[in-house]
Specification:
two-stranded antiparallel ribbon; mainly alpha; 2 domains; two-stranded antiparallel sheet; globular; disordered N terminus
Length: about 575
Amino acid sequence: MGCGHKDDKASLASSQIASFSHQPHQPLSTPASKEVWKKGGRMFSILLAVHLALLACTLVSSGAFEKIAVHDYDVFFLLTVMMLIVIIWIIFYLVGTSRGPDAILCKDSHAGPIWLRGGLILFAIFSLVMDVFKIGYYSSFYSCLSAIKIIYPIVQAIFVVIQTYFLWISAKDCVHVHLNVTRCGLMLTLTTNLAVWMSAVTDESVHKAHSKLKKNVTEEIFRWILKAGMRSSSAEECNCNSQICQIFKNGYFWLYPFNIEYSLFASAMVYVMWKNVGRIIDHHSHHIHHLKFRLFRRTFFVGIMLGLIILVSGLGVLIVYEVQVNSSTESSKKSQALTMYYIFNIVCLGLMSLVCIGGSVIYRFDKRDMDRHKNPTRTLDVALLMGAALGQYAISYYSIVAIVASTPRDAISALNLTYALLMIAQHTFQNIFIIEGLHRQPPKEDHKHDSHQKDLYGLTFVNINAVSLRVPDSGSTLAPSTASGTEAIHPSDLVRSLTAPKKMNWRRKFLREISMFLLLSNIILWIMPAFGARPQFDNDTELNFYGDSMWPAIVDICLPFGIFYRMHAVASLLEVYIMS
């Protein structure tokens, strides 16, 4: 999917030369001043995003603790205001900016691929269901809650609908009007999504911490702990005794992972749009490759079948883990669940590491050229893969230090150490494989035919009978060509060469199998921690080594990045599969 792009500076320089040829006395500083202001407009939008992100981060983190005089409805008020402003700007963009004359001179074919927009819509649907559950939950006892608790999910649902529609139709736009307003609007949208993400992660972490406390202590001690330390949701003070209320409460907490992923997916797409503001694409060197997604063609089905086995087995492990660890207080069942979890992950991570190494070796023999053209989408994909992997790296290294330095060591500690080491190795090898695949040129079909046959392949429609009639059976007419070194063609051979299916070489087939296996494996490795299987909170080694305050804080900060890494790897592997 490589393409050649002209930088804004180069285009301005060319316009400057043209202007000198027609107007010799035009000042030299005019194009340069535009280029400087372009950088100034970007800097202003970045500063706006940084200040808003810091403000939101301060309020969200402060609202999680009881002793700080910041309540959760203060956070909801800020997020509601930010989402309303973004909604107004999106409407202005769709109605005014994008419809202006010469507003969108070109589109970036790499931005917002269909599988990324499809994933965004999937997460948006679950986010809307979560907002419905929130509205139903808070409406059950609206008399003892602030009105903003009900207004917030309503505004969030509207925000999700409008933003999803905006990204679906405008993700590829390269805007050339209202540049500074568009840059600031996109940065405000990105910051709002990150603020919603931080709020959802904090709310989910507080909820899980309260669930652990409720399971281990009595109700009186639990309320005393809430007063002394971490704040509960304001809804905890109200009575939620009805069955429908409990369904709404448990439902929207189970749907939090989808809302978290939606915010991150939207942030990534908005960032690419921000990079494309004012961008000029050279259509003469911008080769658009229309790649077709064929899931069940040209594969051996080995990767799909093995990946499905891993996926189904992981779902079974997740169910057993939830039942024996989160719903039972017996230590023996907890040890059995942890052992089963670690063994499954060790096997899965080991297979994924070996497969990634094999894929990287196959790339060494790949004859396709490297795509070295500018591509903001690919640059962002690589940066997100490398950055999000740091979260899991941090957790793994903290676990390794705690296990090695702790005594005594048991079987679960040995499994935990192996799990941490394989997690580091798998992330590293998978990043190498994905980055190799993203930087490869799309495949070109191999036609092992002579020159005269290649010319015939260039025709859109070929009449086989007509070609057969035009090729004489006798060698008299073909004598000059054979004398000149060209081999004579028999009509039957020509027909077979034209009608023969195009073969895919073994390297592409193996790369497709590897990509599909890794894709399905990453899905289950995303599902397990996102829906409650978090051995970091259930293994006593790290808790005893780092303490009940430090270790949960480390996991709460780093684990969301590890969860996002898995889902972003799924999207990147799908692109690698299609490119293979």
